[in-house]
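Example 3.2
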Amino acid sequence: MSHPTAGYRSFIVPLWIQVLGWCLGILACIAGMLDLIAQWDKDLATLQFLVLVIAPILWMITSRDSFGGATDSIARLSNRRLWIFAVVVGVTSWMTCWFVGRNMVDLPPAYHDEYSYLFQARTLLAGVLSTPSHPTHPELFDQMHVLNEGRMASRYYPGTGLWLAPFVALGHPYWGQWLASALASMFVFWVGNELGGARVAIVGGMASALSPGIALFGNLLLAHQPTLLGLSIFLWAFVKWQRTHAARDALIAGCGLSLAMICRPMTAAGFGLPFGVAFLVEILVPGRAEPLFSRNLRIRSVFAMGLPLIVGWAVMLAYHRDVTGTWTTSPYQLYTDLYTPRHVYGFNNAIRGAEKIGPKVIEAYDRWAVNLTPELAATNVLHRGLASLMWSFDLLPLLLASAVALGMTLWIDRRWLAIGFAIVSLHAVHVPYWYAGIMGWHYVFESVLSWALVLGLGTDLLVQDWRLRGRALMPVCWFFLLAVSLIGLYVPTQTVFGPKAGGPRIAAGIGTIQYPRRQYAAFDQWLNANVTDRPALVLIEADPDDQHVDYVVNAPGLKAALLRARLSNGTTEFDAIARAFPDRAVYLCQPGRKTIRKISIPKPR
């Protein structure tokens, strides 16, 4: 996996690029100090501002030794040392996810979607793609983000369930998310090594391993982690293929993209679009490819890249057919049409959705959707952009690194272009969606791969330049800035700034997901303590004021000793329930009132 360093080049970064980046950083810090950017602690912004102010003074301190001239030994690490660094990156990522989730790992999931993915994983562990709905009272077991129209199945695509299934079987589903995060960070390391050498690899890999966003989402049972893994495999193999044109690399790239596609198709398409363009240019445009890239090699590459994608589509179509009864309608689409029509993709979603209101609409949750206008779309783009910088690593170093990388576009390896454009295209395909996302960015979460690599590239370009110019203290200043950013992510700022300062950024993210998990845990404990007669059916009254918490969660097959059912006010027929569940005690549960009681229903003779 080592990068061929014979063609390694050192660069001079023009001063105007460095000055422009410095000015942008100063302006960003001022905005942070004025509390204009969410999740950027004012005291942290102040410290980062001071580092930038000191930087010009350090620039003027020169050294007679240019630190080795035009070559850089870190670009030529041995394969053994590279593997050691790669393992360190992976272990760091795993430990970061553990550190963030160590106090939550035994709590139930936080979001509706997570229960749907667990339902999917358990369904697949049973050896089927879907399970039958209840024959007489299916409406009792309507579960958020689970389709219940003759067949019960997660509305989501099957890749996440496939990834989680073995870890669910082991009883440790979060291990799967931590492993995906660790492997993705290791692939970021190898991409950095392929494109720029060991420094790009180490900085990019560690930025991914220490990313607060990856660590937070590594403690959610969502599709992001397996999608991230698939895209990181695709990215590594694709940039290798651009150098080797080997069908094996194209095949691995196709497998990675296919994995991402059966987890999050829109994300896979948005991230992969620039690479698809680059692939077609390599294959089709005369004179672009090397003379040794023969017609046969091109054909092999096309088949090798395309075959896994065809298999991925076949898996998704089979899932469609089993759950919805038709190849062309996905469970996701059918669920949206029936239950949440206002959540449809595109502008004027609420207006268009209101025209399709049917009897099965989840009214409170459906009305949560805001009508998407161009103004709201622009606001969402801004929020997603800032949040992706804040949660991928930290806004300031990413802003400085991207300014340098963008300014050096004409001189660096052209393979970097698709990596940069992947950020843009991923944001672009989500413009027509009304919700900014969990923590303002989960729709563009996978851009963290590109951001980590951009940080590695910017770091490498700057350090090369400063070494060539003999600016002895500037690399120290840069890495001190990265260390300060880590302080803002993970270390309570009161240890630096005093007791009046705020907590670390990661604490805010943990609080976002820990609160609902504790709610679910408290409810589960309360329910289990009060439902003493088993087997039981518990009719749960929904809280109309909290559409984001729903306690009707069951395992596939509806055979558990305690089944949770949905109480529909005014329409639930208790006598019919007694006939349908003659062997179960029936309880009425009202979480909003904190009451639960066993109800007497005459049993059929």
